[in-house]
Each structure stands twice: as structure tokens, then as C-alpha cells.
TrEMBL record:
Family: Belongs to the cycloisomerase 2 family.
Domain of life from the UniProt record: Eukaryota
Species this chain originates from: Knufia fluminis
Keyword Signal: yes
Keyword field: Signal
Protein name per Swiss-Prot or TrEMBL: 6-phosphogluconolactonase
Signal peptide: 1-18
Pfam families: Lactonase
GO molecular function: 6-phosphogluconolactonase activity
Keyword Aminoacyl-tRNA synthetase: no
Length: 428
């Protein structure tokens, strides 16, 4: 990493970022694959020298929404936090202080409000449903928490909810229908598909990753208009799914945006500018790389579908690979590095990869201290997997701290056939 990028990352994070180089990625991947063989090789939880504390997690899966504790080694479902909801899927949730939990049901047109007590981790059953656009798969709160943005994969639309009421009651302000032509993939891109809304750091804009249309729609939140002020094209057939803003100069505005393409299995990096009075936010394509490291291709590149993208405070970027055909799927880790000594343009550089511990890692998230990554594997033997992140290198340890098998989520199904967690998040 050059001095320049090291400096900007230091500004970004407030502390020095050490070298992110990795000595031997191969070892990491091989050992992980060995440990998580599907055919019953037993899992040895790693002994934990550091105190990795207690974490209260919320986990959504098909038909279940529940609280699970993680003590650094063992996942324990909490008795006071289990909601059975046959036919529904809380594939995304968001917590709002002091005790409000919103959850999508991607199988219907409802956003649900649950009561969640963060002190004891109790989740109260009977939700209050609010009717919006069907097929929402993601929720985001604006910075002031007064608006809730729900992205509908099913309809290619974004619901803007007023979430300012103290009791959590939602009022639908408006529905923004995305506009444009779908991308070239005839299987998935049959229509526009809003997969995620991301609020920019200034609070003025929300950008919507449109998996069906290979577009990133810029919505201007001024005066609750949320009108589409700009449309950024990704590469055709990308299928932009999840992304995030970066502030590489440590300022209040974003400097870059990074997004993972579900269909083409690429990570794309854009620079971001705020100058244009009409567009509001403009993007310039900077760089793109495969979600797979050169040495770790998928068994089946045709079926592979990237999933989550997660950014660390250090600026490191993590992406999940799904449907790879490998025994278990994987998580790739990238850093931004200057192109050359003379050209400080940031480039995406593959740093390391590990097994996700299971199959179909749809989502992953950090513990509050970012020491642990929680992975939600929808299939395979292992459902929830906790991976330790090296605080210096950003490399994930391929031997999990702890694992909860998918039997815990779908008790009626044989091991390995389960329909496991879709969402996991440590909650206040
Ligand atoms: C998937 O399997 C292939 C073939 O065995 C292997 O070369 C590759 O490293 C594996 N990829 C990952 C990400 O584990
Ligand atoms: C790879 O995936 C494609 C698409 O899902 C499937 O049609 C094909 O049979 C798979 N190939 C192998 C060798 O499994």
C-alpha cells in the first residue's frame, strides 16, 4: 500500500492501518475446506485467547425470527426470543432505539414492527404489520432515523416510510417506481429489481442498487422528494446487489462507492462527486475485479451468484460467493490500493479468501467491535458461522470461532438440506 492510501485510510479510520498483505492465502482456504467438509468431518471450535465477549444477535430465516447469543465460542438460541411465522421470511431487519425492530417479509407486502428489548434480548411475538410494496428484501434508516427505505426486489420499487413516530408506527410517504430497461440476463433480469437502498454519508441522497436493470438509481431526499436525480449504469449483466460508500479523504462526503454484481460475480468501484446541480450525485467507473481471487475460482462459474458486500472501518471490503459448486462457499477480502507509485487512483486488490463455513452465504455482518464476522449460510450443514478477523491484516480466520448448524433452524429437514439463516446482526 502506498503512503497516500495509507494516509487516507488513516484519516478515515482514525488509527493507523497496517499492511494488508497476506502471506499465504492458499493455506487459509485449504484448511477451511478441510474443516468444513460436508460429509461429516467434525468441527473443532477454536480456543479463544482473547475475550470475545457476549453478543446478542437477531437472526431471520424462513419461518423464524429469533434471538441468539454468541459468547465467543458457542451460539445459544434465546428462550425469550423466538417468533415462529410459517410462510414468512424476515430476510432483512433493522433495529431502532430504544426498542423497535422492523422486519421485511419478502414473501408478502408487509413490513412488520416487533418489540425488541435490547437489555434482555427479548423479542415480543405479535408484530404490527404495515402494508407496502410486495417483495421487500432490504431496509435502511436515514441518518436522522426519520425515514425507512424499503427496497422491493419483487416490484422494482422503493417505499419511503415515515418512521419518526415514537411508537414505531410507519406511514407510507411514497413509492418510487424505478424506471429503465432490464439487463441482458433472461433468467433473473426479467424486470427491474431494487435490492438495496444505501444512504450517502451527507444524508441528502439514497442510492438504490437495481439488480434487474444494471443500474444504481440516485434518489434526492431533499424535502422528502426522493425523485430520481441520476441513474448510473453498471456493466451490462452485472446485477448490482449490495454496495456501500467510502470516504477515503476522511471528509463528510463520500469519495467512492463499491458494489457487488450478483450475476457477473464482479466488484465494481466508482468515484463519487457532489458537484452536479441536476444529478446531485455523479459516479465515475474506476475499477472492477472478480469476486474470486485468481487462485480460487468457483467449480461452476455459470451458477455462481455473489451475495453480500461488507465494508470494514479500515476500508477493507468483504464479499460472499454463493452457488459456487464448491463443497462450501466462500468470502473474499479486498483492499483498495494505489494503482502505482505515480498514480494514486485506488484499485481493488484481492487479499485473502476463506470458506463461509457453509453453503449459500446470503448475508454477513460485523460484531460491534468488528472483531468477529457473523455469516448467515442458507444451506449446507453449517448455518451461522462466526469468523475471527485479524485486526491488523483484516484476514478472516478460516477456522470458525463457533458454528450453529442448520438443524437449529429447520428441525424437520435432514442435516445439510436445511433452509438456514438469511440474516444475522448483533443488536444493541
Ligand atoms: C473451489 O474448488 C476449486 C476446485 O477444487 C478450487 O480450485 C478453488 O480454490 C475452490 N474455490 C474456493 C473459493 O474455495
Ligand atoms: C453449473 O451450473 C449451471 C447453472 O446452474 C448448470 O446448468 C450446470 O449443470 C452446472 N454444471 C455442473 C458441472 O454442475
Amino acid at each position: 500500500m502506498t503512503q497516500y492510501l495509507r494516509m487516507v485510510l488513516t484519516l478515515l479510520t482514525g488509527f493507523a492501518v497496517a499492511r494488508l498483505d497476506v502471506a499465504d492465502d492458499t493455506t487459509v482456504l485449504r484448511s477451511a475446506a478441510h474443516v468444513h467438509s460436508r460429509d461429516g468431518v467434525s468441527l473443532t471450535a477454536k480456543s479463544t485467547p482473547a475475550d470475545l465477549g457476549s453478543h446478542k444477535l437477531l437472526v431471520g430465516s424462513a419461518g423464524q425470527l429469533r434471538g441468539i447469543d454468541f459468547d465467543g465460542t458457542v451460539f445459544t438460541p434465546r428462550e425469550n426470543a423466538l417468533v415462529e411465522e410459517s410462510g414468512k421470511a424476515a430476510s432483512w431487519m433493522i433495529f431502532k432505539e430504544p426498542n423497535l425492530l422492523y422486519a421485511v417479509d419478502e414473501n408478502s407486502d408487509q413490513v412488520r414492527l416487533f418489540a425488541y428489548d435490547p437489555e434482555v434480548g427479548a423479542l415480543t411475538g405479535e408484530p404490527r404489520p404495515f402494508t407496502g410494496t410486495p417483495g421487500a428484501v432490504h431496509l435502511a434508516l436515514t441518518q436522522d432515523q426519520k425515514r425507512l427505505i424499503a427496497s422491493s426486489y419483487g416490484k422494482g420499487a422503493v417505499d419511503i416510510w415515515d418512521s419518526s413516530a415514537a411508537d414505531g408506527t410507519l406511514q407510507l410517504i411514497k413509492t418510487i417506481m424505478l424506471v429503465g430497461a432490464p439487463g441482458p440476463d433472461t433468467a433473473v433480469q426479467t424486470q427491474l429489481r431494487a435490492h438495496q437502498g444505501v444512504a450517502d454519508p451527507t444524508g441528502r441522497f439514497v442510492v438504490v442498487n437495481d439488480l434487474g436493470g444494471d443500474m444504481i438509481h440516485v434518489l434526492d431526499a431533499a424535502a422528502d422528494s426522493y425523485s430520481i436525480s441520476n441513474v448510473v449504469k453498471t456493466d451490462p449483466g452485472c446485477g448490482p446487489r449490495h454496495g456501500g460508500f467510502l470516504q477515503l479523504d476522511g471528509g463528510a462526503q463520500a469519495t467512492h462507492y463499491v458494489v457487488v454484481c450478483e450475476i457477473s460475480n464482479m466488484v465494481q468501484l466508482f468515484s463519487v462527486s457532489y458537484g452536479d446541480t441536476t444529478a446531485g450525485l455523479t459516479y465515475k467507473h474506476v475499477h472492477a475485479v472478480s469476486t474470486f481471487g485468481a487462485a480460487f475460482p468457483p467449480v461452476n462459474a455459470t451458477s455462481a451468484r455473489a451475495g453480500e458486500l461488507l465494508i470494514a472501518k479500515s476500508g477493507a471490503i468483504y464479499v460472499s460467493n454463493r452457488l459456487t459448486g464448491n463443497q462450501t462457499d466462500s468470502i473474499s477480502h479486498f483492499a483498495l490500493e494505489a494503482k502505482s507509485n505515480d498514480d494514486t487512483t485506488p484499485q481493488l486488490v484481492f487479499k485473502s479468501g476463506v470458506s463461509s463455513g457453509g453453503v449459500g452465504p446470503r448475508m454477513m455482518s460485523w460484531s460491534h467491535d468488528e472483531e468477529v464476522m457473523f455469516v448467515a449460510n442458507m444451506n449446507g450443514v453449517n448455518g451461522l458461522v462466526a469468523l475471527k478477523k485479524d485486526s491488523t491484516t483484516g484476514v478472516l480466520d478460516g477456522v470458525p470461532l463457533g458454528v450453529l448448524t442448520n438443524e437449529a433452524f429447520a428441525p424437520d429437514l435432514p442435516v445439510g438440506q436445511g433452509f438456514g439463516p438469511m440474516f444475522v446482526q448483533e443488536v444493541a
